[in-house]
Amino acid sequence: MAPRTKTPQPPAPHAADSHDLIRVHGARENNLKDVSIELPKRRLTVFTGVSGSGKSSLVFATIAAESQRLINETYPAFVQGFMPTQARPDVDVLDGLTTAIIVDQQRMGSDPRSTVGTATDANAMLRILFSRLGKPHIGPPGAFAFNVPSVTASGAITVERGNKKAVKATFSRTGGMCPRCEGRGSVSDIDLTQLYDDSKSIAEGAFTIPGWKSDSWWTVRIYAESGFLDPNKPIAKFTKREMQDFLYKEPTKVKVEGSTLTFEGLIPKIQKSFLSKDREAMQPHIREFVDRAVTFATCPECEGTRLTEGARSSKIKKISIADACSMEIRDLAEWVRGLDEPSVAPLLEALQQTLDSFVEIGLGYLALDRPSGTLSGGEAQRVKMIRHLGSSLTDVTYVFDEPTIGLHPHDIRRMNDLLLRLRDKGNTVLVVEHKPEAIAIADHVVDLGPGAGTAGGTVCFEGTLEGLRASDTVTGRHLDDRAVLKDEVRKPTGALEIRGATAHNLQDVDVDIPLGVLTVITGVAGSGKSSLVHGSIPAGENVISVDQSPIKGSRRSNPATYTGLLEPIRKAFAKANGVKPALFSANSEGACPTCNGAGVIFTDLGMMASVSSPCEDCEGKRFQPLVLDYHLGGRDISEVLAMSVTEAEEFFGTSGEAPLPAAHKILDRLADVGLGYLSLGQPLTTLSGGERQRLKLATHMADKGGVYVLDEPTTGLHLADVEQLLGLLDRLVDSGKSVIVIEHHQAVMAHADWIIDLGPGAGHDGGKIVFEGTPADLVAARSTLTGEHLAEYVGE
Question: One biological-process term from Gene Ontology (predicted)?
Fold first, then answer.
């Protein structure tokens, strides 16, 4: 008999292969309610849910934050002392974590010297390339850097060799910074009449600079008591010498009331305190002052290139580094591809890969000298992605925050391909997203909700896309929502004429933007939409622009303080109880003395994460006990701040416990923009990007302007909220306003009265008007990329 053969048993799975899940148990960060979930590794998981439902709290504040904290703990204590400290998230179990790389929507640094090239490695590589191949040779890489000034020094140095002796030595370093504009590309001229009133003396409060009060250290005390000036003499009567010291004196130590302080001329002081900051990063009243007092012009010496003449004279194949940085990146990539020099082959290969990544991710229209502060949120996020595209790392967790923001439907497909490529290399990809086109590529979907704020924070659904569609969750019900084209569009009441617009890539554009209707400006990313709207519409009293720039505010700022809602509430409390309004501010007299009105006590543990615990004296209410004895409508001030917008609307309404029309008006606007779930005292630092923009929109709705300019208001909005936004835009138009919206969302396009489509491509391939007309005409013509995608969306 033939011997019996045994079927070989499959080998037992290796213990290391059993860790293929990220397990989260009992997550309670922000509004999460004991969330427990298991996420598959090496798959693409999309997190959905209405704005404020807890997506970011789960993905960023819990999973990614703990991963980063654990990695930071592997560094020596000395190094940890220089790193941002992070507290452990409020969660019971976090298991199976891998290294997390976060690619979020935070705007890039708005330093005037920060550009797309300096924010990535492209500029550093170009500088090395020109220092090796540029003719004539002018020096090392620093000679091509606009952030490095040229330095020359000479003097005696002591040489410790045998007998010590002093020898004369000179030292020089060649930098690329233009000495006239200090590497900024523009120079400023200051209007002195905006700085002071020369008919007054310093003691009489001559200064008209924001924050310079007549009794502050910087004005009367230093300028008046320096001994260089007569504080009681009107500035107009200063002698030549006094005027020179007053305006231009070099920093000099002076004694003021027993303290040694630095006296400095007014012009250099203004340049350091105001002009060294980026205009976009300034507070509104400071920006207004700078716009009034300072005129900026292109630097005549470097012609805006930021570089010295030497750096501009060194060339490779007739191209200088200034020319290379001003080219569109896709053209620069072609130029680099044409360089064949074996001595720098590895450098050329790395530079080529970086530039190709820009093109691949849809940013080929940018130039390396574009200031990073001018990038939109979506562009900044994609610039951050570039360093990860060619990475050899695998088994990493990539975390993305709405990567489709600022992308035309045509570009979303390309972004989807990139996310899938990252996953296919063996990485875990976690994406917070609202767009159905991006949710469609998910291997696994997690839907949070059911509502926002305190009504959210639970997992409503977990599974496949088909399962989500069949589920009865808010996202599932709205996943296939499609706006329909209007049967009738409104008729314009006038037109805003733009003639010969050439900002950035616009090619001498003439266009009439209709007024009294909802106008949507569309086009692929980089086609010139923002340049047309923000760069060409004259900013006047009649134009209110609500953009995506971040709200400035600390954890002490909240919706009540930001919108001005707290003012009438404090006055009502004061009137009802016969006391001062300042008692009802946690940042003023009413603050709990133990925690200074913060509500929490922070314990600094050196290199360890500082620990925050609720203040024991005020129990986190932020006010001193005496203040909480005063009531309005049966509630104390801490109870009012803990209310949601919807509750407060009822409380302060005509039939509520404390009718207060001034407060009710502001609360109505907050509810109008879909923020009814926010609590009045919630710190601004905990709001999502979409919530912040809608908060800004709510505050601007009270302004008197007739033209509203909105920059992608659907950013961070759930499908279910888009309908509410369309209703709000309709109400604004029906009340006699003109609304101009830059938008990629097809629901907003379909709802428009008039569409202006820019293109046909991005960068120098764009900048032209490719369509003007109604959405129905655009769908019927299908003559542009936008037309094709909109026709597909409405099912025509």
Answer: DNA repair
Structure-block tokens of residue 9: 């048993």
Q: Which two tokens stand for residue 712?
A: 């992608």
Total residues found in the chain within this entry = 796
Across 647-674, b (16+ Cβ under 10 Å) vs e yields: bbbebbbeeeebebeebbebbebbbbbb
- What is the amino acid identity at position 530? S
Closest Cα partner for 724 from 711, 714, 736?
Answer: 714
Beta pairing partners, 181: none
E strands, 480-570, are 494-501, 509-515, 518-522, 543-546
Percent of the chain exceeding pLDDT 70 equals 93
Domain spans of the chain, in order of start = 19-106+374-476, 185-296, 480-550+691-795, 554-685
Residue 4 has pLDDT above 70, yes or no: no
Between CA 274 and CA 771 the distance in angstroms is 42
Q: Taking Cα atoms as reference points, which of 393, 438, 435 lies closest to residue 420?
A: 438
Residue type present at position 429: V
| Close Cβ partners of 660 (under 8 Å, ≥ 6 residues apart) | 568, 569, 572, 652
φ, ψ (nearest 5 deg) of residue 155: 165, -170
Q: What is the pLDDT of residues 287-335, one digit of tens each?
A: 788 888 888 789 999 999 999 999 999 999 999 999 999 999 999 999 9
Task: Could you please state the CATH topology (level 3) that the domain comprising 554-685 is classified under.
Answer: ABC transporter ATPase like fold (1.20.1580)
For the record, the structure tokens of 477 come out as 């019900």
Which superfamily is assigned to 19-106+374-476 in CATH? Answer: P-loop containing nucleotide triphosphate hydrolases (3.40.50.300)
CA–CA distances in Å: residue 544 to residues 21, 540, 720, 737 = 49, 8, 26, 11
Cα separation of 264 and 618, whole Å? 45
Whether 776 has a pLDDT exceeding 90, the answer reads: yes
CB half-sphere exposure, 579, CA atoms < 13 A: 16
Please answer whether residues 372 and 116 qualify as being in contact, where contact means their C-beta atoms are separated by less than 8 angstroms: yes
Please state, in angstroms and as integers, the Cα–Cα distance from residue 56 to each residue in 146, 383, 670, 720, following that order: 38, 21, 22, 18
* Cβ burial 201-210 (10 Å sphere, 16+ → b, else e): bbeebbbebe
pLDDT tens-place string over residues 523-579: 988 898 988 988 788 666 588 888 766 676 677 889 999 999 999 999 999 999 999
Cα 178 off chain centre by: 29
Q: What is the chain's mean pLDDT, rounded?
A: 88
Task: Name the burial class of residue 574, with classes exposed (0-12), middle (13-18) and buried (19+) by CB atoms within 10 angstroms of its CB.
Answer: middle
- Tell if the pTM clears 0.85, that is, is over it: no
**Where does 480-550+691-795 sit in CATH, by number?**
3.40.50.300
- Give the contacts of 590 (CB within 8 A, at least 6 positions apart): 582, 583, 584, 597, 623, 624, 627, 637
Backbone φ and ψ of 262, nearest 5°: -105, 120
How many CA atoms are closer than 13 Å to the CA of 299, on its beta-carbon side?
A: 20
Q: Are 771 and 787 in contact (CB under 8 A)?
A: yes
Whether the domain at 19-106+374-476 and the domain at 480-550+691-795 fall into the same CATH topology = yes
What are the pLDDT digits (tens) for 95-147?
999 999 998 776 676 677 889 999 888 999 999 999 999 999 999 999 999 99
Q: Write out the two tokens for 127.
A: 């500088």
The pair of structure tokens assigned to 546 is 């609500």
Residue 512: HSE in the Cβ half-sphere, 13 Å Cα cutoff: 8
Dump pLDDT digits (tens) for 708-741.
999 888 887 888 888 888 998 998 999 899 999 9
Q: Find the largest Cα–Cα distance for the chain.
A: 125
Torsion of CA 402, 407, 409, 415, to 10 degrees: -60
